[in-house]
Amino acid sequence: MAPAQITTLTRRKALLQLASASAAFACPAFASSRLAAASADSTPQLAPGAPTSPQRMALIDAFLKNSDGLEKSFEARTYKSDWTMPYRFFRPAATAKLPLVIYLHGSGGLGDDNLKQLEFGNIFGTRVWLLPENQKNFPCYVVAPQTDRGWARYDLAYTGSGPTPVIPGLGDGSRLALEVVDKLCREFPVDTKRIYVLGQSMGGAGVWNMTAHRKSFFAAAVSCCGSPTPEDAAESIGTPLWNFHGDADQTVPVTVSRDRIAALRKAGAHPLYTEYAGVDHNVWQWAFTEPSLIEWLFSQRR
User: Fold this and answer.
1) What is the pLDDT of residues 14-72, one digit of tens each?
2) pLDDT for 161
3) Are 110 and 15 spatial neighbours (Cβ–Cβ below 8 Å)?
4) Burial bucket for residue 40 (CB in 10 Å: 0-12, 13-18, 19+)
5) Does the N terminus or the C terminus of the chain have fewer Cβ atoms within 10 A?
C-alpha cells in the first residue's frame, strides 16, 4: 500500500474516533434540563405527537418510502484543488435563478468514493429537497460534497491515543466545499442571496465552522447534533440558524447544543432550537421530516 493511502486511512480512523468520543470536548452542563425555546425564539410549529409516538414515526416511515431512489438524481462530480474533493450535485428542472442547499455529511460519510455522503443517515439531509412536492414548491440546487478529513479543522499531525483534536481555523473540508460552492455559483444561475448550509454530527461541526469563518455568506443554516468545535458561537451570529438535538444523545452530549444556543442568545442572536425528548444521535430523522423546516429555510434570504 502506498504511503499516501496509509496516511488517509489513519486520518479517517482518527476522525471516526471523534464521533464516539465527543464527550471529551463537551462544554459544561447547561443549568436547566432543557432550553425553553418557545420563550426565546419564534420556532415554527412542530409536527404533532411525541417524538417516538406512532403519529410522529409515521412521518419518518413515509419519508423513507417516498424518497427511495431519489439519490439517483444526483450527478457525480469532482473538484480539484490542492486535493480532490468528490461531490454530488442535483440540478432542478426549473431554469430560473434558484437557491443552493449545501449538505455536510456526518462521520459515516467520510471517504472519497462519492457515495457514502448520500447513504446511511445522510439520506434524510440529501433527499428531502428532491421530493417532488418540495421541488414543485421550492425548486433548488443541492450539493453534497464528501471529505476524508472532516469539516472543521483537525490537528492531523496528532499522534496521541485519544480523539483527533479540533483546533481553531477554517477546516480543509470546509475550505474546499466553499470553493465548490463558488464554482457552482459561476457555472449555474444560483441565487447567491439564498445559499443554505446544513449538516449533522461531524457535518454539524462543519456548519459552525463555515458560518464562523464566512460570515454573512449564508442565508440560513441547519445543524443537527453538531459535534464540538473551538469557534465561539457568537462568531456565527450573522446567520439565521435552526439547531436540533436529542436529549438522549449518547454520542454528542446535548449540552453542546444547549451551550452554543445560550451563547448565541447572550450575544443578541435569535436562533431556533428544537430538542427532542428521548431521541439519540439520529436526530436528523426528526429534523428533516419536520413539515415546517422547508418553508422556514427557503423564507430566509440575505
Assistant:
1) 444 444 333 333 333 333 333 334 345 688 999 999 999 999 999 999 999 999 999 99
2) 86
3) yes
4) middle
5) N
* Lookup: cell for 204: 454539524
Strand runs labelled E in the chain: 75-80, 84-90, 98-104, 141-145, 190-200, 220-224, 241-246, 272-276
pTM, two decimals, is 0.88
Q: In the predicted model, what is the mean pLDDT of the chain?
A: 89
Per-residue cell: 221? 443554516
For residue 96, give the amino acid letter. A
Cβ neighbours, 10 Å, residue 166: 22
d(Cα 97, Cα 43) in Å, to the nearest integer?
28
**Strands lying side by side in the sheet with 190-200:** 75-80, 84-90, 141-145, 98-104, 190-200, 220-224, 241-246, 272-276
pLDDT tens-digit series, residues 178-188: 999 999 999 99
Pairing type for strands 84-90 and 141-145 reads antiparallel
CA-CA-CA-CA dihedral for 13, 18, 19, 24, to nearest 10 = 150
